[in-house]
Specification:
- By secondary structure, the protein is α+β, with helices and mostly antiparallel strands.
- 46% of the residues lie in helices and 26% in strands.
- It has six helices and seven strands; from the N terminus they run αβααββββαβαβα.
- The strands form two sheets. Strands 1-2-3-4 form a four-stranded antiparallel β-sheet.
- Helix 2 runs antiparallel to helix 3.
- It starts with 7 loop residues before the first helix and ends with a helix.
């Protein structure tokens, strides 16, 4: 399960020489729904205010455009964060890499994972995402629950297959 939008060069950056990547995905696009709705709401509100207030009220009209630009920049930032947020599973490790300005890479060896679960809310079932829950003695907080994972049931089965091979 390799996301075709992730370049092989990006995947190779995080792999050891003899390691094979089994899963490489970004967080599900639905993580952008809330920021997108907020930015759209701010733009609609600004347009409604521009329509409601007469053009003679220049103060209101001048204040609206910076608010719209700020909303668009805020949404752009969230899209950038999403584009640089990866979840990798290799034949040896589970890796989460995120961050735009400062890169954070967290990993746990597959042999250290003692329990693996996944959850899907109603919205997750409708949109196609879920949360993977990893239990381990060495698991960092960011790796305990990896939210907005696309195809969580397929990734769960692949990870279970790797876990049983690693322990077996």
């Amino acid at each position: 399960m390799l996301d075709p939008s992730i370049s092989p060069k990006t995947v190779q950056r995080y792999l050891l020489p003899a390691e094979k990547c089994v899963v490489a995905v970004r967080r599900h696009w639905s993580i952008l729904i809330r920021p997108g709705a907020a930015a759209l709401g701010a733009a609609v509100l600004a347009l409604a205010m521009a329509w409601y207030f007469p053009e003679e009220n220049a103060v209101v009209h001048l204040a609206l455009w910076p608010a719209v630009v700020a909303a668009v920049l805020w949404l752009t930032w969230h899209v950038l964060v999403w584009r640089h947020d990866y979840f990798f599973v290799t034949d040896r490790r589970v890796i989460v890499a995120h961050g735009v300005l400062t890169r954070h890479v967290l990993m746990v060896p597959l042999g250290e994972v003692s329990e693996l679960k996944f959850q899907r809310s109603l919205s997750g079932r409708i949109l196609g995402h879920g949360t993977l829950l990893l239990e381990s003695d060495v698991t960092e907080d960011a790796l305990k629950d990896v939210q907005y994972v696309p195809w969580p049931d397929t990734i769960y089965v692949r990870m279970c297959d790797l876990l049983f091979d690693a322990k077996g």
